[in-house]
Amino acid sequence: MAVTPETNAAFLREVDEELRRDQLVGFGRRWGVWVAAGIVAALIAFAGYLYWQHHRAEVAGEQGEQLAQAYDALGNKQPAKAEPVLAKLATDSSSGYRALAIFTQADLLLQKNDIKGAAAKFASVAGDEGFAKPFRDLALIRQTAAEYDTLKPNVIVERLRPLTAKDSPWLGSAGELVAAAYLAEGRRDLAGRLFGQIAQSNDVPATLRQRSVQMAGVLGVDAVAPNEKAQAK
Asked: Which range, of 49-58, 130-139, 188-197, averages the lowest pLDDT?
């Protein structure tokens, strides 16, 4: 009896499916234990990750409470109570709380007129790439401000000029220091231009913007915005 092409194709499909079932059973017999072990290992790893995330959140919460307690002590004029907490957070906490603790330690040193000690604290953050860039940039500005009277103007310019770009969030604080350094070098054109740039920014405090308008005007730069001129009339 002849086999039609349709019957032959159906037979081949059936054989192929049976072969694949046999291969799957053989794979299960041969590798099933290892696949199951891999799945279990993946689940354990995932559970461990979830626990680590939860633990990290708990630790961060505890560190936040400790920093808040230190600030409360400082607000109540009890630095002796706050200093041990800050010292611990400055060496053994997540990078954000560690940076805040070091900043606070530096501010306490500034209150004691320990400029060198405060500058060293700020420098420890500015030079540590383990901290996020905003912390490092702010620390560099604070360090430079603390050391300002002991630094040559070109050192100030070299340090902070990268932070004076028009779109920089540090334009106001870094820019004013750099502009003053330009003045100390006798570079009135650069100082006036930078004061004008600060004056035209809406992202700096109003008092700093007003001061920059005045400084720019003294240096021959008209930094008053057109709408402010219209209001003045």
From this structure: 49-58
Burial label for 201, CB within 10 Å (0-12, 13-18, 19+), is middle
Residue 10 exposure: Cα atoms within 13 Å on the Cβ side: 5
Residue given tokens 């490092």 in the structure block: 136
The pLDDT value given to residue 225? 55
Assess contact for 174 and 168: CB atoms under 8 A: yes
Between the alpha carbon of residue 16 and those of residues 3, 4, 149, the distances in Å are: 18, 18, 86
pLDDT higher at 41 or 205: 205
Q: Where are the beta strands (DSSP E) in 9-113?
A: none
Q: Where along the chain do its domains lie?
A: 56-150, 151-233
Residue among 212, 217, 189, 214 at smallest CA distance from 200: 212
- Between helix 171-184 and helix 188-199 the angle, nearest 10°, is 160
Better pLDDT: 182 or 100: 182
Q: Which CATH number fits domain 151-233: 1.25.40, 3.30.230, 1.10.3470, 3.30.1380?
A: 1.25.40
Separation between Cα atoms, residue 42 and residue 135, nearest integer Å? 37
Paired tokens of 196 = 């004008």
pTM for this entry: 0.70
Q: For position 13, what pLDDT does the model report?
A: 52
